[in-house]
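Q: What would this chain look like folded?
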Amino acid sequence: MNRIGLPLFTLLFMLCIPLGAQQVLRDAIFYYFGQEMVGFPQEKMSIHTDRPSYLAGERIWFRTHLVDALQMKQANASRYVYVELIDPAAQLVKRIKLRPDSLGYFHGYFDVQEELPEGYYTLRAYTQFMRNVGTDYFAHKQVLISTPATQDLTPHVRLIEQGSSVATVIHFSSVGYADTLVPQEATIFPKGTLEEDGIRLKFRDGVAKFTFRKWEVNEQRTFLLQTVYNNKVASRFLSLPTDTTRFAVSFFPEGGSAIVGCNQRIAFKALAADGLSIEVKGEVVDDLGQKCALLQSVHLGMGSFVLNYQAGRKYYAHCLAKNGAKQIFELPQPKEDTVGLAARWTGDFLRLSLLQPAAESRQRPLTLVAQLRGLVLYANPWDYSQPKITFERSFFPAGITHLMLIDDKKNIVSERLVFNMRADVKADLTVATDKPAYEPRQKVNLALTLKDALGHPLKGNFSLSVVDGHDVKPDSTQNILSDLLLTSDLRGYIEQPLSYFQGNKLQSHQLDLLMMTQGWRRYNIPEVVKGNVTEKLSYPLETSDVVKGRVEGFLKGLKDANLTLLAIRDSLLGTHVAIPDKDGYFSFDQMEYPERTKYIIQALKSKRGSAGVFLTLDSVISPAQPQLKLLQPRTPLLAERNYVMKMDQKYTLENGMRVYNLGEILVTARRKSNTAGDSPYYSANVSRVISRKDIEKGNFSSVLDMVRLLPGVAVIGSEVTYRGQPTLVILDNMPEENFDYERLIPDDVGDLFFAPPTTVGPVFGGRGANGAIVINTRRGFVEKNTVNNNMAIVRPIGYQQSVEFYSPVYDTPEKLKSTKPDLRSTIYWNPAVTTDEHGEAHISFYTADSSSRYRLAVEGVSAIGAIICSEQDLF
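A: My prediction, written as C-alpha cells:
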C-alpha cells in the first residue's frame, strides 16, 4: 500500500464507521482516533532563515513553513503565525505577528538591535491553535548574533566550587596576545538582564573570582557579562560552567517496563549537568556483584544493551564518563504481570515480538495498534500463533509511528516508537546555472526543477537563500526535514537533530535509540483509546482579530445599544459595527490591521446617548510567554573574524559609524526611579518581576494578562488569587483592597510583581497573609478615568507589514563601475518561490564583489506533501 493511498483509505474507513456499531475494540479505536482528528487536527511548523549567524544591527530574514501535520502539505487554516526572538536568558526581545501573503505563505524579518548582547538567540514560531498541544511542539531555531566590540577580548569562565552557590574564576585573553588581559571594567549581571544592578569584578593577577548565589542563577544557567576594553563597551551572554564530575544516566526498558526472565533491550541516555549529552561506558552488575552486561554510548550519550532480569535481583550500572568521572545508577525494577513490545528494523522489514515474563503461560487478549500523527494505520488482535509480526517498510509513511499494546480494558500496557525514512518523503530539486563561473556584479540566472521520487514534475513552494560560502557556514544542526519528521513529534530538547539524517545504517541505529529514550504525547492517547476525545479546545482556530464583550444598563444587558469600533494608527484605518444579542453580548470580528493599531470601542443608547451605559470587554488571549528552558550549545561564541569585520564595514557604509558607549560613562550600579528594586516590598524572594521592558514587548491587552504570568498567581475572570486565596494589591506603595484592575491600562504600569506573605504579612498583618500584587506605575502617572464607562481601548498585536529583500541590480555601466563596495553575505533571499505545473521556477540575481563561492539553501513542501530540502554549492 503506498504512502498516499494508506492515509486516504484509512481516513475514509474510520469516518464511515457508525458509533452504534462499535462492539469490537479494533473498530472503536479507529472511530475514536478519527473523531479526535476531525475535532482536533494538528499543525506543524519549521523556520528557515537566510543564514544561521548575524551581526548586531543586521536584519534576520525568515519564512515559517506551516503544514498540516498529517499530510505535510501547506496549511492555511490558522490566519496568523507568531514569531519571537528570545535571548539566551529566555527573555523576549521582540514578537511579531504574520499574516499570509497572496499565495498563503508566512514570511517576515527581525531587525537586530545594534546594542543587543552577543549570544545564541532562539527564534520561536507558533499559531494560537498550536498552543493546545503545548509549547514543546512549537518551531524553534537557534541563531548566533555577534557584535564587533567582542572580537578583541575573549572571556574564560571556570568553575571552582559547586554547592548552594557557584564559585567561578574569570580571566580574559585576546588573539595575538600571549598574556592574560585585564579589561578596563568588567561587570556581571547574574540574571542575564541589564535591567538589574550589576556587580563589578575585581581582578588580581589578571583573574577575578565571582560567586553566583543560588537564587541568582536562572533556569538557563546564563548570565550577562559587560566589559570595557579599548574604551568600547561589549556585552555578551555566557553559560555558567557546570560541575564536570556530575552527570545522570536514565534507563529505558524496551516496551516501557522491565520484565523478568527474558532477554530485553535496555536503552540509556547520559546527560551532563548542563542538560547536554555526555559519552559514557561501563558495566551492569547485580546485587551479588556478578557482571551482567557492558554498556557504551554510541551517539550523543545514547546506547543500549541486553539484560535478562532475574527474579529478586537488583541491577546497577557503573558508569565512567569521558572526562573520568564515575557514578553508579540503579536500573528500573521489573513490574509484575506486565508485557512489552519489542521492535527491530531488518532491512526493509519491521519485526515486532512480544516480551513476556518467563513464567507467563496465559495468552492475555491484546490488541496491537499503530498510529502516526493521529491516523490509525493498523489495529488487530495480537496473533499468539506467530512468533513475530512483520511489516514491510512501505506500509508506514515517513516519520514516527507510535506502536501500542492495548488490553481488553482499553489500557495501554506497552508502547514503542519507531522511525521510518522513505525515499519518496523528499522531493528532488535540481538547480542549473547559465554559466559555470561569474565575475563580480554579474547577473546569475538559475533554473530550478522539482520532481517526485519517480521523476514526475511537482508543484511546490519554498524559500530560497543564496549566501557567500566564505562568510557563512551551513547550519549543521537542523533543517525542515528534521523539524517536520522528527523534532515536531517529540517532547523535550533534541540535540543536533540533523545528525540523524545522514543516510547510512549507523544513523538508523541512532534514530532507534532516540525513539526509545524520548517521550511523545502530541495527543492524549490513553484518553482517546478509551473514547474520551477532546471536546473543547482552550485556543480556537484564529481566523481574524476578534474583540468580544458585553454592554449593560443598570443590572441587565442592553440589546438595543449601538456599538462601534474605530481602528486608528496614525489616522483612521477602519470602522466596524456590532449588534449585541438579547443579553448584551457582542463580538467584533473579521478585523485585520497592521502593527501599532489601536481599537476604540464605544457603546451608545439610541436615545439617551452614553448615560447609564457600561461596557466590559472579555480578556483577549495573549501570546504565549517565553517560559522555556533554553540549552546553550557548548560551541564557543566564535564568529569568523573576517566575516565580522566585513559585515561591520557593510553596516558602517549603509548606516554610518557605530555608536559605542564609552568606558568613562559606564554605570554599573543602576538605580531607576519607580522600579521594583525601589519598592519597600521587593525582596530576593520575589520570583519574577514584569518590567516595563517586558510590558512593551509583550503587547498585553490588559493588566490582568500581566498578572497571569506571576508564578503561583491564578486569574479567573477578574478575580486574582494566590494558592486559592484572594491577594492584597499595593499600588504605588499604598494598599488597596477589592482593587479594580480595569482602573489601569498596560501603558500605566512601570512594573509589577508578587510579594510573598513573608514580606508583606509583617507590615499589613492579616491583610497581607496571602501576599500582595505590587504595582508601580510609571513616572508622572496620575490616576484618572481615561475613558468613560461606555468606552474601551484595545491595543492588539497587529500584523507585520511585508518588506522586500533588497538585491542590487547592476544593469548599467554606471552601476557596474560604482565605487561603493558590495559586501553582501546574503546574496539573495526569496521566501516565496513557486514551481509551475512543469515543476520549474526561474530566478535571477547579481553577484556581489566576492563571487567565487556561493551556496544555495532551499526549504519547503510540495503539493503532495513531499519535503523540499536542498543545500548545495552553486559555483
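The longest strand covers residues 59-68.
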